[in-house]
Amino acid sequence: NQAMVDALLAAAPAVRERNAAAAEDLAAALTALGAKPEAIAALRLRVGDTSHANLRRLVADSQSDAISAQLGRRVFERSACVRCHSTTRDELLGPSLRGIGKAANIENLLESVLEPSKTIKTGYLSEVVETESGQVYSGIVSDAPGDQLRVTGSDQTWLIDKSDVAARAPLKKSIMPEGQEQQLSPQEFVDLVHYLQSLE
């Protein structure tokens, strides 16, 4: 599987130059095979307009149905979303998405995906922690056993003795990275939104 991914990644620049439609298909194939999103994004295979204005327009003009929602579920499961969000009551790094289709209107849903730092849910505000030795960590901070702080970043967790904390301050930036939509085609984004709307 990895050998196939490597071969497709190597062929991608030539495909992009010759056939834009094939480049889109190649991006979808690489995603399905588990290629890293950043590797796909670096190849600039996505040729659709992923500006926020266009994505909002496409969602507004679209009609949600079971097929689109099912395709959106596949997008969710193979993208970075699944690292931090669960669709059950269990919470991972980010809040559970269970019931989000009923709890959030479409504008709030789009804002959460396209502008994650605009409104941060209570309990998910990131902080920066500096230790006495000058090490700096950022993530969601919580108490841990043994008079320690747990700092949970997007891909790593640290335990820091409270006595070793020199400074601590809130960040006005979500731990959810911006630009996730740039790793999807416009249709994949629409399908993803339809899937989120179906979570009731």
Explain what you see.
- The protein has helices at 2-18, 20-32, 37-42, 52-61, 66-78, 81-84, 100-103, 106-114, 186-197; strands spanning 127-131, 136-144, 148-152, 157-161, 165-170.
- It is 44% helix and 15% strand.
- It is globular and about 60 Å long.
- The longest helix has 17 residues, at 2-18.
- A hairpin with a 4-residue loop joins strand 1 (127-131) and strand 2.
- The chain folds into three domains: 1-47, no CATH class; 49-119 and 176-200, Cytochrome Bc1 Complex, Chain D, domain 2 (Orthogonal Bundle); 127-170, Chitinase A, domain 3, CATH 3.10.50.
- With 200 residues, the protein is of the alpha+beta class.
- The chain has nine helices and five strands.
**What is the CATH-assigned architecture of the largest domain?**
Orthogonal Bundle
Structural class: alpha+beta
| Structural Rg | 19 Å
Termini, distance in Å?
Answer: 35 Å
* Global geometry: globular
- In the sheet with the most strands, the strands line up as 4-3-2-1-5
Q: Uncertain segments of ≥5 residues (pLDDT<50)?
A: none
Strand content: 15-25%
Q: How many structural domains? A: 3
Helix content: 40-55%
How many helices? The count is 9
User: What does the average pLDDT come to?
Assistant: 85
The first-level CATH class of the largest domain is given as: Mainly Alpha
CATH topology of the largest domain: Cytochrome Bc1 Complex, Chain D, domain 2
Count of DSSP strands: 5
- Sheet with most strands: 5 strands, antiparallel
Oligomer: single chain
